[in-house]
Amino acid sequence: MAQAFNLKYPSIDDLRKKAKRKMPKFAFEYLDGGCNDDINLKKNTSDIRAVELIPNYLKSKVQVDLKTTLFGETYDAPFGVAPIGLQGLMWPKAPEILAHAAKKQNLPFVLSTVTTSSIEKIGKISEGKAWFQLYHPAKKEVRDDLIERASNAGYPVLVLLSDVPTFGFRPRDIRNGLAMPPKMSIYNFIQILKRPEWALKTLMNGQPQFESLLPYMPKGLNLNQLGKFMDATFDGRLNEEKIKPIRDLWKGKIVLKGVASSADMEKAISLGIDGVIISNHGGRQLDAGQSTLHALQSLNKKYEDKITIMMDSGLRSGPDVARTLASGAKFTFMGRSFMYGVGALGSQGGEHTMELIKTELRQVMDQIGCEKTSDFPNFLVK
Ligand SMILES: Cc1cc2nc3c(=O)[nH]c(=O)nc-3n(C[C@H](O)[C@H](O)[C@H](O)COP(=O)(O)O)c2cc1C
Prior knowledge:
The protein is α/β, with parallel strands linked by helices. 45% of the residues lie in helices and 10% in strands.
């Protein structure tokens, strides 16, 4: 077992339970929850887990290699860290911890526009390997500046988010004062007092801020003003007219995240987008939506030769990565799994979680006789 692996937490569920005990309730529920009645959240995982693999045991030797090449870069495993907003609220320095871990483990870390570390800081930590996820800014100057900063910091891939045209309806966040505009109440403070390690570390590291956005933000905003600033700064509904100039500006690869329909897939292809992440934001936006696994099954057949297809939402283990690759995805991402790891184990959590998923995935490959990650579709029960 690798050094970074903590034997007390051999599953994402162990990490989730531990994270729940260490994070204030409002922060844990922000991370953990879906939208409305959590139907889409639950379906994401259960539909992945309905996928079955066939083992081929009678072989003289099986040499497993997790390495996977994507956009010309060879990563040590076929998964990466999905972009998550407000990470420092869930655990102090979470984006830095995950970016360091991803660099060491040679996996892609995707930085969210609205997380609590800056484009420049993560660019340095990842030595130009992290990807940048852009929330579409309402103002052209902000858009161009963010793109230029990401390019100067060496990010090879720009991820455009398409699945947040509106704020998701999330009952827990509404109850906890985390809907827009955010509002802290006495209950939030009581929840903080019950989590002294989180409180102390937050005090030591300072209040988390939207660090990449500081250059565009008036100083000293209260929570209400911050909500208004965010509303005015971003324009979540993406379309072809908004994507075209970004395609022209950005010299690296562009990935569209949140694709779940043929109509959007066709547009992505015609716009010269390099890859898509089939995603439903981890079940946080459309409770009546399809699981990403079902969307993958139908879209992959039609478009796999035309564009690089990746998937996220619902994966919680190495076998889940295996099932998703077997269903046609070329690469996978996970959001909550890595954040549970950091919430549970702090600075050790990123590497532990990556080692855990790699170890599980390697075991599946050894078991079924799959030597390369691109061979997984040959082991799918159809
Ligand atoms: C708390 C939270 C915040 C998120 N913030 C962002 C974000 O800022 N940008 C983005 O593109 N996706 C965001 N996502 C979606 C993730 O990138 C990813 O699609 C999702 O977490 C995948 O599902 P999983 O958590 O089941 O792995 C967020 C997800 C969660 C859970």
